[in-house]
Amino acid sequence: MMKALTIFDISGRAMSAQQVRLNAVASNLANAQTVAGTPEEAYKSMRPIFKANFPSQQMGQGVATVDTDGIYRSTLPPEKKYSPQHPKADEQGYIYSAAVDPQEEMIDMLEASRQYQNNIEVLSTAKSLILKTLNVGK
Amino acid sequence: MNALDQYLKPQAEALSLRNKRMEILGSNIANAGTPNYKARDIDFASEYKSVVGQGDLSTTNVQHISMLQTSPPGQARYRVPISPSLDGNTVELHVEQLQFAQNTTAYEADLQFLSERIRNLRSALRGE
C-alpha cells in the first residue's frame, strides 16, 4: 500500500527517472570508444525503460508517477574491425568496438533534459500556487 | 456556520478540483517518456457541477431526466491524442503544457475570488 501521491512526489520521482536516463547516456557516451577482444565482452549501450506507477488507493483518478522498470542492454551487434596489431585482437586479427550510436545517445540526452525541465516547471508552478494559497485571506 | 460554508464553498471546491487536475496533468508530464502510458484528464465543468450541485433543474417526477450529463465523480478520462506515438504513449507535451497553464491561471483566479469573499466577510463583520 502506497501513500497518496502529491504533486511533489509525482514530479520528484519523474526527475529521478530522467536522471537515471541521463546517467545511462553518459555511461554510453563514455564507453563509445572502448574495444574488446570478443563480441560478448564489447560494451553494449544501456537504456532505462520507464513504467507508470499508479498508487493503489488513488486508482482511477489519473494520478501516476514514474518508476524505472529496468535497464536494458542494446542488442545491436558490436562493430567488427580488422586490426591485427591491436593488443586485444583475436586470432583472426579482429577487435570489437562498443555498440553505441552517438546520434541516438544525443537525442536521448536532449529528450531527457527537456523532460527534466518540464517537471521542474510543474514543480515550481505548484510550489508558487501552494505558497499563494497559504497566504489566502491575509 | 452553515451559511459561511455555503458562502465559501464554490471557491473552495473549485480550488480542490483545480488542485486535483494539476496532479493529473503533472502525472501526464511526468510520464511523457513512459511507453504505453495513456494521458488522462478530468472534465472540470462536469466534475464541478457534480460536486457543487449547481446548474441542474429540479426533478419533481421520477420520469424527469437530469440535465446534467456527468461521468461518475472522481473519474479521470483518457485524452484522445492528435498524433499518437509509436510506443503507445499518448502524452503530447504541448497539449499538457497548455492545459497546465490554463489550470494554473484558473487556480489563481479562484484564489483571487476566495480572498475577495473573505475580505467581504471581514468587512461585513467589522461593520465598516
How many helices of chain B?
Answer: 3
Helix-strand pattern of chain B:
HEHEH
The separation of the N and C termini of chain A measures 38 Å
- Report the principal-axis shape of chain B: flat
List keywords for this structure.
heterodimer, A: 138 residues, alpha+beta, two-stranded antiparallel ribbon, 41% helix, 20% strand, B: mainly alpha, 3 helices, 2 strands, 3% strand, flat
In short:
The complex is a heterodimer of chains A (138) and B (128). By secondary structure, chain A is α+β, with helices and mostly antiparallel strands. Chain A is 41% helix and 20% strand.
Describe, in plain words, how this protein is organized in 3D:
The complex is a heterodimer of chains A (138) and B (128). Chain A has helices at 7-30, 102-134, and strands at 35-36, 46-53, 65-73, 79-82, 94-97. Chain A is elongated, with a radius of gyration of 22 Å. Chain A has 138 residues and is α+β, with helices and mostly antiparallel strands. Helices cover 56% and strands 3% of the residues of chain B. Chain B starts with a helix and ends with a helix. Chain B has helices at 2-30, 44-52, 93-126, and strands at residues 40-41, 77-78. Chain B is built from 3 helices and 2 strands, in the order H-E-H-E-H. In chain B, helix 1 (2-30) runs antiparallel to helix 2 (44-52) and helix 1 packs antiparallel against helix 3. The chains are: A alpha+beta (138), B mainly alpha (128). The A-B interface holds A 5-7, 10-11, 13-14, 17-18, 21, 49-52, 60-66, 111-112, 115, 118-119, 121-122, 125-126, 129, 132-133, 136-137 and B 15, 20, 22-27, 29-37, 40-42, 74-76, 93, 97, 100, 104, 107-108, 111, 114-115, 118-119.
